[in-house]
Design goal:
With 406 residues, the protein is α+β, with helices and mostly antiparallel strands. It is built from 14 helices and 14 strands.
């Protein structure tokens, strides 16, 4: 395994504390029923977190047979990127901060950022209907759905994936024309790719651009992302990790109908950490984009332990690991859940925001706490259950949140 250590060794006087802290982190990762508080870490250990991260990363990778992984963390502007294992078992190429991973559904957070950016520019309204923004669908049941419901999985009963007969974008549009709701919009949540894909189509149309150009030619450059792609260029392919399905068979994402809008982005730990930092504290060169980043973080309703934003999912902080696991469980992905109206002021207090992602051969997770200026990125080239990486991130969160300010 390639070491994620950034500094060689650590002072001997801290070895006992390091072992105690690592043991507690591993306990969080492997024994979810109980959580023991982690001892505060002294200020001069701010740059000495590598031994702890190395330990939990090794445990996680062994447990899920993960070939390669990148972990990126930020705490009040201090960044660390850890690289482990191989980008390809066949070539033996190591994972580095430049390794490209498939983001899966984390791509949706970029799609919704593009949508709120278009709204900030006066090109669309998230409260406006599908039919208003895409006249071809006006007069149909789908035309009555407000755009914000497309971004909260609450449009009235979209499936997780397009039906098998939908093989092209033309087929997708025909599907939208024929679609009928299973229940009123906004009252139930069912995690869905076709609905956020439609928002991506509408957003690109509002900007007068193809979706690919809107992302790679407008949004990614404005965010300062230099290694984030829908189409990996020739010169970047040597950095593209090989993914592996749960059986360990090599696999990569193949393009499907409107897959770009829902789960098609590839990126590096470095770029994704920058995106997380901008969501923590927007600071691009475009005030409208800064506004758009924050607009996506406004909760629309509650479902289970989680508050649903525009794609982002948030929780009151601090949070118990079991609540975070439940909010990212299969029940939230595959089942229909009733929505609960928000009756409190969610603009106050501390919140944790997160999003999982996955393709047939990759698994990813991002988490951040704006009030603590703290963020975590986990990228792996193996498909595995959400729970494992959520618990890993929580273990890292427990560590980082106890680091004193730099």
């Amino acid at each position: 395994m390639a070491s994620g250590r950034l500094l060689p060794g650590h002072p001997s006087e801290h070895e006992d504390a390091a072992m105690r802290t690592t043991a507690l982190l591993l306990s969080t990762l492997l024994a979810p029923a109980s959580l023991t508080p982690i001892e505060p870490i002294e200020a001069d250990q701010l740059f000495e977190i590598a031994p702890y991260v190395d330990s939990v990363a090794a445990t996680f990778m062994d447990r899920y047979a993960v070939p390669g992984m990148a972990i990126a963390v930020v705490k009040r502007g201090q960044r660390r990127i850890f690289s482990y294992g191989v980008a390809s078992k066949e070539s033996g190429a190591p994972v580095t901060p430049d390794t490209l991973f498939e983001l899966g559904s984390i791509s949706k957070t970029f799609t919704v950022t593009l949508a709120t950016y278009s709204e900030a520019r006066g090109k669309l309204s998230m409260d406006g209907t599908v039919g208003k923004h895409l006249p071809a669908l006006s007069g149909r049941p789908i035309g009555q759905i407000p755009l914000w419901q497309l971004a909260t999985h609450s449009g009235g009963g979209f499936p997780l994936q397009f039906p098998n007969g939908v093989r092209s974008e033309r087929d997708a549009m025909r599907y939208y024309l024929d679609w009928n709701p299973s229940y009123p919009g906004g009252v139930r949540r069912s995690y869905a790719n076709p609905s956020i894909a439609l928002l991506g189509v509408i957003t690109a149309e509002s900007l007068g651009l193809s979706f690919e150009h809107a992302m790679e030619g407008v949004l990614f450059p404005k965010l300062g992302l230099t290694d984030t792609w829908l189409r990996v260029p020739m010169e970047g392919r040597k950095f593209y990790a090989q993914g592996y399905n749960p059986a360990g068979i090599p696999v990569r994402l193949s393009k499907g109908p409107l897959s770009d809008q829902a789960y098609g982005i590839r990126s590096t730990a470095r770029d994704l950490l920058r995106f997380v930092e901008l969501n923590i504290s927007p600071g691009t060169d475009d005030p409208l984009l800064d506004r758009a980043l924050l607009k996506a973080q406004v909760a629309r309703f509650k479902v289970g332990p989680m508050f649903q934003d525009l794609i982002w999912e948030q929780y009151p902080y601090p949070i118990a690991v079991e609540a975070l696991v439940k909010g990212n469980s299969d029940d939230m992905v595959y089942n229909v859940n009733p929505t609960i109206p928000i009756t409190t002021d969610v603009s106050q207090g501390e919140w944790l925001l997160n999003k999982t992602g996955g393709t047939s051969g990759f698994s990813s997770y991002v988490l951040f706490v704006p009030s603590r200026q703290l963020g975590i990125v986990i990228l792996t080239n193996k498909s595995h259950p959400n729970e494992g990486r959520v618990r890993l991130a929580y273990a890292l969160l427990q560590l980082l949140d106890r680091l004193p300010p730099p």
